[in-house]
Amino acid sequence: MTVFLKAGGNLRAMIKPDVDHYTRKLEIEGGKSIGEILEHISLNPAYVALMYVDGAMKDLSYKPADGETITLQPPVSGG
Amino acid sequence: MTAKGAKGATGAKMAKRSTSSGGLAGTTLRIDLTTGRIKREPTDTKLMREWFGGRGVVAKILYDEVPRDADPFGPENLFIMTAGVMSGCFIPAGAKIEFGSISPMTNGHGDSNMGGHLGPALKFAGYDTVIFSGISPKPVYLFIDDDTVELRDASKYWGMGSLDCEPLMKKDLGEDFEIATIGPAAENGVRFSCITHDFGRQAGRTGQGAVMGSKKLKAVAVRGTGGIVVHDLDKLTEHVTAIIKRTQTHPNMAPWQKYGTSFFVGWSNKNAVLPTRNFQTTYFEDAEAIDGPELVEKCFISHKACSGCWMNCGKYVKAEVPGKEKVFLEGPEYETGALCGSNLGMKDINHVAYLNWLMDNVGMDTMSGGGVVAFGMECFQRGLIGTGDLEGHTLKWGSVEDAEHFVDMIVHRRGIGEYFAGGTKRAAEKIGRGSEKFAMQVKGMEMSGYDGRYAPGMMLSYMTCDIGAHHNRSWTITVDMAEGQDKVEGRAKVVVYLQHIRPLFDCWCICRLFWGELDIEPEEIVQTLNDITGWNIDTAEALKTSEKMWNLVRCHYLERNRADGRTFDYPPARAWEDKIPSGPNAGKGLTKDQIETMLNEYYACRGWDAKGNPTREVLHDLKLDFAADAIEKLGLLGTPLPNGIPAVRGERYKPKAF
Amino acid sequence: MERKRIKITQGKCSGCRLCLQICAIAHYHETNPKKAALRIEAHFPQPGIFKPKVCVQCGKCMEVCPEGAISRRDDGAYIVDFEKCTNCGTCIPACKPGVIFQHRDLDHVIICDNCFRCTDLCNTGAITMFIQPAKESA
Questions:
Q1: Mean pLDDT of B397-422
Q2: Least CA distance to B515: which residue of chain A?
Q3: Which strand ranges, in their side-by-side order, compose the sheet holding B148-153?
Q4: In terms of domains, do B186 and B260 share one?
Q5: How many helices (H) and strands (E) would you count in chain A?
Q6: For residue B12, is pLDDT > 50?
Q7: Residue A18 phi/psi, 5° resolution?
Q8: Which is nearest to B393 in space by CA: B374, B371, B409?
Q9: Which of B20, B36, B625, B638 has the highest count of CB atoms within 10 angstroms of its CB?
Q10: How far is it between the farthest Cα atoms of chain A?
Q11: Which of B240, B3, B231 is CA-nearest to residue C26?
Q12: What is the CATH number of the domain that holds B588?
């Protein structure tokens, strides 16, 4: 199935966007969690402060459906 | 650029108004509070250009004009208010106003800024900078209404809380006045007092409110109907509109807008850097109860933005604590959420918000305030103070009633409140018995909301920050995580780079949060600066100017405090004596050797000697020979480095941890 | 002709005042919120909300103008003729949302001309462009 990762800030380079400036398309097996997807692209989840799908906050155990976009939020660098 | 659409609606008959040009309003005010004399002079554009405005200009004026032995609470200290070149110029988040004076906390250069709308208002009224000297014989406030500048009697407002005073002043003067006030904490000389504006924005750090209070200056009220002229408005509008459109669809914009920085409490906790119970540990079991989503769900009223910023990170909320009146405030943002939340063992977001309101209203910095109350709570925990010292009250972790009473003792300096009114460093000196170890401060100012024992770059940032243990200059936690939290080598050059780039926002009076979190490159920021000012600078020159400021401030600090720089650059002993006792980072911590290693590396990186003193070589490179001469006279000029100074000091870390 | 006007969605304004800035830039080529043709009313400390006030195209300004300096354009906007306007200010109290302004630099009043630059930049959806389809009879 297809999922999309979307990120800005210092996460953007880490997800290696290929669809547009912020978005990476991934073909993965069904039933994978966000945690497993991040592991698949070698992204340390410690760099991710929040995760969203359609505006709803998710955690690493969430299993996205086909075609969903997971937005990753890096931590604020102080404020 | 002409208006679209309507016939006859283009700019008609603009009267030649003021001296505004290149982003500056054109006039500087010098106000002697002792005599009440107000002098207008043209803004020194050369000073602005050389020192970039904002923090830079504050640093130079303080260096040039305040005698080295001046008491921060005395008439010779200056209190400076300045809006920089970019504030108010149709620049995203171009809202800041910068305050500066010799800090009563650190006895060195102190500066703090805040968002809201006061910075732009000052410039619309026609003023870039206001420099106060002396002490007013009676409480006054500064009244500015375009060309009218007056010191007015503030006896009606003296004694009022900041959040109570602002609506009254707006009612008296006009809703469209921008108001900044101090509260009773500053009036009573509490060293970590802040300045409050727009119902919830603060210039919190370094005790700027306390200096205002010492001068009997209760408030500043500004209305301006003028405009600001920039160097190239068409280019600026084009660039800014493009940035606006691009960031509107940035993936991270929505959560920023929804939560502000409050969501960060959860992240800090998950990564075990969240200060808990006075930095005793770094993981708080109840963090979820005080995290951003809780705040938004339980307390939220509206989003609140600073001038020209659509990230609108401000959250205007209500706090409801049983038995107390419902209160309204802006916050808590991350720092307050941590330092008045987990750091005090608070388990209810309403309690954290209530304490935020309390401190905003009495006018104390919530960061230092949280640190001071936490220190008090640990002293109570350890039996160093008891109910007899606390007017019969306890001071227990997680008790909002205890915290409120303790804050009241501090504001009115009753009993041991007197010790704590000086901040944790001075309180520990009075309490003694080993409490200095857990007075979480450097140079006299309390630590920000991140524990650095397993984030060495962060610890180094606290140690070497010019104004005390603050994160605003350099924040490295993700770098620490990427490079290995057990390793200390290699952090220094990253810290140095951040200490150059981040304060530039304080010079230009724009908000680092907007510009730093949305993939805007430094070159784009410099481009908009050039559109506004016509200075035609590049990023390298910007960084070098910032480095110059950093070194000037260091030299000033050495001159005032008369000892080798290294003396002042250590964290409290908890940093190396207490390993983290619990949570995901249990057992971790720094050693004293690692602290020394980091300092050695940092000084070498900066072209300073091992005693932490700038060398003539680096000061000469920065055109600060006059500063070198001055510290040399005191025997504090750095010994020349055997291999010379690095050609460029500081290195940008990739990926960007801005 | 279709009518376009500014629609306010209450509860969304964050008080950033970008709308005021772009209005003044578009019409007077300077950053100066006091030359904007709309305003943001702040209600603090309670209830703690912002209310944008914009031209609602009611036409009262045109009705009361003693100089006939205001006329209605086909798309619904009310346009000030700067040559005819004497800046007497009679229109100001007639404007219910209170969005007619005078400024010391100008010798005419400021009334919104429906350029919609403000709605273009508003990021919260507090003010948006609303298009009313054309009717059969004018």
A1: 98
A2: A9
A3: B148-153, B140-145, B217-223, B178-181, B195-197, B201-203
A4: no
A5: 2, 5
A6: no
A7: -130, -15
A8: B409
A9: B638
A10: 39
A11: B3
A12: 1.10.599.10
* Chain segment B399-409, per-residue pLDDT in tens: 999 999 999 99
Domain count, chain B: 3
* pLDDT tens track for B42-74: 999 999 999 999 999 999 999 999 999 999 999
Q: Percentage of residues in chain C with pLDDT exceeding 70? A: 97
Based on the domain organization, do B388 and B481 belong to the same domain?
no
ipTM over 0.85: yes
Which residues of chain B does C98 touch, with a Cβ-Cβ cutoff of 8 Å?
none
Are B614 and B606 in contact by the 8 Å Cβ rule? The answer is yes
Q: Residue B111 is which amino acid? A: D
Can you list the alpha helix ranges (DSSP code H) found in B502-569? 503-508, 512-517, 522-533, 539-561
Residues of A engaging B, defined by a Cβ cutoff of 8 Å? 6-10, 12-14, 22, 44, 46-47, 49-50, 52, 55, 57, 71-79
CA distance B31 to B130: 7
Residue B133 CA to its chain's centroid (Å)? 22
The CATH number that applies at residue C26 is 3.30.70.20
Q: Is B188 helix (H, G, I), strand (E, B) or coil?
A: coil
Touch A-C: 3+ C-beta pairs under 8 A: no
Residue B384 within a domain: yes
Q: Answer whether A49 sits within 8 Å of B267, measured CB to CB.
A: yes
CA of B80, closest CA in chain A: separation in Å?
Answer: 23
Identify all chain A residues contacting B518, using CB atoms and an 8 Å cutoff.
8-9
Tell whether B209 and B269 lie within a shared domain.
no
Flag if C108 and B301 touch (Cβ within 8 Å): no
pLDDT of residue B371 exceeding 90: yes
**CATH: 3.40.1180.10, 2.40.10.340, 3.10.20.30, 1.10.260.40. Which one for A2-73?**
3.10.20.30
pLDDT of residue B194: 98
Give the integer Cα–Cα distance in Å for B166 and B171. Answer: 9
Query: Residue B408: what are its φ and ψ, rounded to 5°?
Result: -65, -40
Q: Are B336 and B367 in contact (CB under 8 A)?
A: yes
Whole-angstrom distance, CA of residue B436 vs CA of residue B446: 13
Residue B327 forms part of a structural domain: yes
Question: Is A45 in contact with A35 (CB distance < 8 Å)?
Answer: yes
What letter does residue B511 receive in the DSSP assignment? Answer: -
pLDDT at position A20: 85
Looking at the partner chain, which of B175, B228, B310 has a beta carbon nearest the beta carbon of C16?
A: B310
Query: What's the token pair of residue B538?
Result: 């590049």
Query: Do B388 and B482 have their domain in common?
Result: no
Residues of chain B found within 8 Å of residue C69, distances taken between Cβ atoms = none
Percent over 90 (pLDDT), chain C? 87
Instruction: Give the C-alpha distances (Å, rounded to integers) separating B73 from A51, B69, B339, C56, C80.
Output: 48, 12, 27, 54, 55
Three-class DSSP category at B491? helix
CA distance C80 to C68: 9
Residue A45: the pLDDT is: 83
**Which tens digits make up the pLDDT trace of B305-360?**
999 898 899 999 999 999 999 999 999 999 999 999 999 999 999 999 999 999 99
Nearest to B475 among A8, A52, A77 (CB): A77
First to last CA, chain B: 34
pLDDT of residue B601 exceeding 60? yes
How many domains are contained in chain C? Answer: 1
Tell me the pLDDT band of B522, cut-offs 50, 70 and 90.
confident
Structure tokens at B606: 């900066």
From C77, which residue of chain B is nearest by alpha-carbon distance? B6
Chains contacting C (3 or more CB pairs within 8 Å): B
B459 touches chain A (CB under 8 A): no
Which range marks the domain in which residue B218 is found? 27-223
Residue-number span of the structural domain to which C88 is assigned:
3-124
The last residue of a domain, from among B223, B240, B263: B223
Average pLDDT over residues B251-267: 88
